[in-house]
Amino acid sequence: MTKYLLRRLVAMLIALWLIITLTFIIMHVVPGGPFATEKPLPPEILKNIMAHYHMNEPLWRQYTDYLGSLLHGDLGPSFKYQDRTVNGIIRDGFPVSAALGAVAIAIALLIGIPAGIVSALRRNSWQDYLAMALTTIGFSVPSFILAGLLMYVFAYRLGWLPPAMWGSPQQAIMPALALSALPMAFVARLMRSSMLEVLQQDYMRTARAKGLPERLVVWRHAVRNAITPVVTYLGPLVAGIFTGSFVVENIFAIPGLGRYYVMSITDRDYTVILGVTIFYSAFLMLMNFLVDLAYVFIDPRVKLAGRKEV
Amino acid sequence: MENLLEIRDLHVHFTTYAGVVQAVRGVNLSLARGEAVALVGESGCGKSITAQSIMRLLPSPQGKIVKGTINFAGQNLVKKSEREMEKIRGNEIGMIFQDPMTSLNPTMTTGNQIMEVLRRHSRMTRQEMTARAVEMLRLAGIHQPERRLRQYPYEFSGGMRQRVMIAMALACGPRLLIADEPTTALDVTIQAQIMELMQDLRQKLGTAVILITHDLAVVAGFARRVMVMYAGKIVESGTARELFRSPLHPYTRGLLGSVPRINDRARQPLTPIAGRPPDLLNPPPGCAFWPRCSEAMQVCARQEPAMVEAASGHSAACWLLHPQAQNRRRVG
């Protein structure tokens, strides 16, 4: 167990280092820089700024300096937002993205899983067709269109919900819905196909032969076995949604992390790009790790040595 | 004494895309308390469907009992509601299946799977249920049952899993155990052990058993009475001894002829039954076996033979048993 955890930790650190290095290289290969503006700055000022941010030093030096401060947990200052550090941006943006993401995931699971179960149990019924048609829409309608539609109906037409901004629970409803449509559709499909497979299994017949009522057969024997793929999908989903959807956050003017992330790329805000990438990667790896741990509780055949006996 | 199980004129139909398959076409079967009978026949002859009908676990909505009665301990199971059947399944009738590797839930400990059936049908406390599960596993020949109770199916071999299935099926002390090809998926040596266990438990617990198999070797030592099924009907029934020694129906003779014998000094080649079973979408008129039968007569294609008792307790549905046919054969 301890050995397994250590091995995973080392693997994660190596992966993280590779990500940092690649991001650093790609970032500097792309033309332009944080201080490239339409109206060129006077050379003296530019030189001063460059010196201030240590950008006049050779790249390898900047790289090692960055790694050094990273070890102290310091992601450096933002180039774009004066007086703001990358740590500060993450500290401010992440809780907002996480709160929004948590609501979106809760909606996706609370609706997606039951929808998938019902579809599978009533295969080829109108409920199944309806649910599957809706998931197709959920897959194919981009979140910004859905966001616009929601805003138009609920904020503009009906006036039930505030159109944008962040702070009150009502303000979370529309962005969370827009954000949850795709994962909800995915979870429903995943749950449906996985249930259909489990329902075919011989142990379902055994459960019925025991005289269990259908409700127990489904819940205790089918759902428990069918949920594994959904859990697998949950790792990357949580990381992706928690770190924010740029589009949705932008439309609803929500000060989350996703907005900063995409803007930092167009701004060539080097430290923000690197910092958020590192944060995102570390978070993703952590989520995948937690999912792997969760398997142990869901499927007794999975042992933490990483091999699966059947 | 009244029979434990009495099936009369059972007809089961399956609705498929190709049409209605007449899977079971008038099965009659009776079983006394504590008796063991074997239902023998090739794949698709309707023996498993008959078993599923008793449990009322036919694949829904395709499979349907369209005619007949299944009388179990004085109640007609065909008329029971789903809820009433739930009280009978696992409680009064236990069932074990062909493939023990896939018949247990992989994410539940064996103990919980056994106790689940007790929790459903008895008012035992948790301790009593654990004690009962331990007792059942021990009866089923599993060592260290207290430890095995906490293990998952993947920690058991195929034969051991079938023992768990048997322990589970018998946990509530059912009066009838239906064993649907219980040894087909197992090695030959394990097969013998499982059959021995079932025989042993049957005698200890007094459970009646319907053994469904296509393997005549499995039947021989187990069941006193054997019924041979073909194309959805029982074509011959008799004591195992009689039936093996002097089979009446040409199909039974064919089945016995296609079994290898270890002490066959003449090294005769096995004689397979030519042809295929009939298409039950449109079962032929007359005897279903006549196209494959080497002794078929004109009447066989036209009219269905009735079950005739040729010797005491030994009957078959074949025109050859008709007095006129006897004469004809003697003449010819």
TrEMBL record, chain A:
Gene Ontology biological process terms, A to Z: transmembrane transport
Organism field: Desulfotomaculum copahuensis
Keyword Membrane: yes
Domain of life: Bacteria
Keyword Transmembrane attached: yes
Protein family: Belongs to the binding-protein-dependent transport system permease family.
Residues covered by the ABC transmembrane type-1 domain: 94-291
Ranges that cross the membrane: 9-30, 94-117, 129-152, 172-191, 230-252, 272-298
Pfam families hit by this protein: BPD_transp_1, BPD_transp_1_N
Topology of the protein relative to the lipid bilayer: Multi-pass membrane protein
GO cellular component, one term: plasma membrane
Subcellular location: Cell membrane
InterPro entries membership: BPD_transp_1_N (IPR045621), MetI-like (IPR000515), MetI-like_sf (IPR035906)
Primary location class: membrane
Name by which UniProt lists this protein: Peptide ABC transporter permease
Keywords of the record: Cell membrane, Membrane, Transmembrane, Transmembrane helix, Transport
Automatic annotation (TrEMBL), chain B:
Localization per record: Cell membrane
Main localisation: membrane
CDD domains cross-referenced by the UniProt entry: ABC_NikE_OppD_transporters
Record PROSITE patterns: ABC_TRANSPORTER_1, ABC_TRANSPORTER_2
GO MF entries: ATP binding; ATP hydrolysis activity
SUPFAM superfamilies (UniProt xref): P-loop containing nucleoside triphosphate hydrolases
Domain ABC transporter stretches: 7-256
Keywords carried by this UniProt record: ATP-binding, Cell membrane, Membrane, Nucleotide-binding, Transport
GO biological process: peptide transport
SMART domains xrefs: AAA
Topology in the lipid bilayer: Peripheral membrane protein
Recorded superkingdom: Bacteria
A GO CC term attached to the entry: plasma membrane
Similarity annotation: Belongs to the ABC transporter superfamily.
Protein known as: Peptide ABC transporter ATP-binding protein
